[in-house]
Amino acid sequence: MKFHIQTWGCQMNDHDGEKLSGLLSVEGFEPVDSVEQAELVLLNTCSIREKAVHKVYSELGRLREVKQRRPLLVGVTGCPAQQEQAALFKRAPHIDFVLGTMALKQLPRLVAEAQAGMTRVMDTGEYPDNHLFPSSVTRRRDTAKALVTITEGCNHACTYCIVPTTRGAERHRPCEEVLAEVRSLATGGYREVELLGQNVNSYAGGCTFAELLERVSEVEGLEWIRFTTSHPMNFTRELARVLVTNPKVAPFLHLPLQSGSDRVLKRMSREYTVAEYLERLEYLGEGRAKLTLSTDFIVGFPGETDEDFEATMRVLDEVAFDGSFSFIYSPRPGTPSLRLKDDLPVGVKSERLTRLQQSQGRLTQASNDRFVGRQIPVRIETHGPTEHGWWLARSGEWKTIHLVAGPDRSLPFGELVQARITMASPHFLGAELV
Ligand code: SAH
Ligand code: SF4
Ligand code: F3S
After folding, report:
1. I want to staple 100 with a disulfide (CB 3.0 to 4.6 A). Which of 82, 147, 215, 231 is the partner?
2. For ligand 2, is residue 303 a contact (CB within 6 Å)?
């Protein structure tokens, strides 16, 4: 049977897609690149904001049309599956099975039941070994950089966030198991790993996260280690030290701030004040100048006043983030912030988002400008030059690089090469191969 998995959402969800693809491949199913070729389509979905959930229903609508023309099995997994469970069948009766986020390994069984003609097949149970996934089964898309789960779930309770409901409480993968996976990846030719968790720095699989980073960095053959994502309250001095001193740890930190107003942070239950967030950045000391720093913002959180928003704009400027992701608050079912009065006009929210993004655009340009003239290592991310003649690459600082290599140079995919940065635009750096 030919299958196609469509994934959206965060890196953890991307990686779940790779695990699910592996589970089906091991059973002899054949992966294909499009819905048209597939006999089984699995939607691996996200519910972090309303827009992501809309996508679930619009994709399901598209699949219903296909299903009217020919036989097709349709499964739904990811956060909306865990959240909605059997309610999904009511809204979209053409779904054959629903798989929860904590029951990935049940996929082959659910598919077999659906193939056998059973309807409304579902497993949204919490399997305690979900995070202990056999790495030999995972079918990774990239051949140079690998995603590696270290924790699942989240023990924080940000009032706007659906993740604790859809991913459950934290479960940590034992340190030795993480190391064994990374070693086998390095032996298999991977040069970079990204350690994954909703909050990697609360890691407790037998050592601290900082210790885990140090141990992973000793694995032979690895060039860069990245991690996603960090909660400021669990960002320790020890982690800051490793980040700025260990040459294998890529010089990039994503540390979500959400708002620059203490009043809003409190209503979000973020567990820190702006001053405490800034103190975490101080942990980096002078090493901070070597890193790029990015963050997340939510604008238009219920009750956010002009003054609160101005406070966010001030912190944005003060920290001068190299990049940020910003979103308008999206009310999520079952989250505590639903009880807060959300009466700010949509127009005001969009205006604030636009202002924040314009300021960030200027900061990002300034951040990019600082690279001009520097020579830095970058990893080749394409198998050949684009039609414009340059290669796409990425730096340790997570900058997108357009690299000119000369007409007769062929650069191996995944290779680290030295680049001299020659120009900076808002979205990428132009560079020449050294
Ligand atoms: N675990 C990560 C967050 C994962 S969600 C962390 O704590 O950093 C990624 C980002 O989506 C969050 O940082 C937040 O900025 C945004 N987000 C989450 N829930 C949201 C909501 N209900 N509305 C708008 N943005 C939201
Ligand atoms: Fe959501 Fe907060 Fe947990 Fe991040 S730390 S996943 S925002 S509850
Ligand atoms: Fe989306 Fe779930 Fe990730 S809601 S962002 S797929 S944890």
Report:
1. 82
2. no
Cα-based distances in Å from 65 to 59, 60, 68, 309, 398: 10, 9, 5, 45, 40
- Would you say the pTM of this structure is higher than 0.90? yes
Q: What is the pLDDT of residues 276-307, one digit of tens each?
A: 999 999 999 999 999 999 999 999 999 999 99
How is residue 294 written in tokens?
Answer: 């990015």
Which CATH superfamily does the domain covering 375-433 fall into? Answer: Nucleic acid-binding proteins (2.40.50.140)
CB 182 within 8 Å of CB 222: yes
Give the burial class of 90: count Cβ atoms within 10 A of its Cβ; 0-12 exposed, 13-18 middle, 19 or more buried. Answer: exposed
> What number of residues does the chain have?
434
Q: What end-to-end distance do the CA atoms of the chain give, in Å?
A: 48
Hey, what CATH topology would domain 2-123 get? Rossmann fold (3.40.50)
184 CA → ligand 3 middle, Å: 27
For residue 299 and ligand 3, the question of a CB distance below 6 A is answered with no
Rounded CA gap, 212 and 217, in Å?
8
| Atom of ligand 2 lying closest to residue 198 CA | 6
Maximum alpha-carbon separation in the chain: 63
**Cβ atoms of residues 153 and 200 within 8 Å:** no
The CA-CA-CA angle for residues 154, 158, 159, to 5°, reads 135
Tens digit of each residue's pLDDT (9 = 90 or more) over 208-230: 999 999 999 999 999 999 999 99
Residue 320 CA to ligand 3 centre (angstroms) = 27
User: How many A from CA of 294 to the centre of ligand 1?
Assistant: 14
Please name which of 294, 207, 202, 204 lies closest in space to residue 256, comparing C-alpha atoms. 294
The CA distance from 199 to 202, in Å, is: 6
Q: SS3 for 131-184, per residue?
A: CCCCCCCCCCCCCCEEEEECEECCCCCCCCCCHHHHHCCCEECCHHHHHHHHHH
Q: Which segments of the chain belong to CATH 3.80.30.20? A: 146-367
Q: What kind of architecture, by CATH, is found in domain 146-367?
A: Alpha-Beta Horseshoe (3.80)
Strand partners, 420: 375, 432
